[in-house]
Amino acid sequence: MSTTTTAPQKLNLYEGMFILESGQYAADPDHAIQEVLSLLEKAGAKIVAHRAWQEGKLAYEVNEHRKGLHYLAYFEMPGDGIDVIRQSAKLSTLILRHLILKHSKVLFDAMVQALSTHDAAYHAAVVEEPEVRRKETSDDDDTDDVDLDDVDTDDDDE
Question: What does pTM read for this prediction?
Fold first, then answer.
């Protein structure tokens, strides 16, 4: 009686750039992101990091679209998942174009770190900082309320 054990498939490190139809993304960003992530997971990918990168005018028309949103995803996946991604992306009305790059561990880690650092800095600057300012402003008891009706705005004094 012979037992054959299959070795676990080697996971490669990939960067995926997806150009999304900007109208669909603008209408429902959460659904658009979920569609891209589901496509990757269906191919056997384990997503490490992802985010919208840039939206703007395309260099040339793609499937009659002049604008698109570039969406970045970094993931681990066996090599045979590429065909699944390629086929699913062709069938998607959301994905106009895609590019998958295989990275070395050093480059992959650096790119994920850069993406994570950017997201953390953005979150701190845009989400947390205004909340801190609002809290500080509401806690500040020393502020004097000025009634605009009491302010002299006449320029006759000159």
Answer: 0.69
Query: Which contacts qualify for 82-85: CB closer than 8 Å, 24 or more apart?
Result: 82/43, 84/42, 84/43, 84/44, 85/16, 85/39, 85/40, 85/43, 85/45
Whole-angstrom distance, CA of residue 15 vs CA of residue 72: 7
Longest dimension (CA), the chain: 107
Rounded distance between C-alpha atoms, residue 103 and residue 88, angstroms: 22
Say which CATH class 11-104 falls into. Answer: alpha beta
What are 103-120's pLDDT values in tens digits? 999 999 999 998 887 666
**Pairwise CA distance, residues 53 & 147, whole Å:** 45
Contacts of 41 (CB under 8 A, 6+ apart): 47
Q: Where are the domains of the chain?
A: 11-104
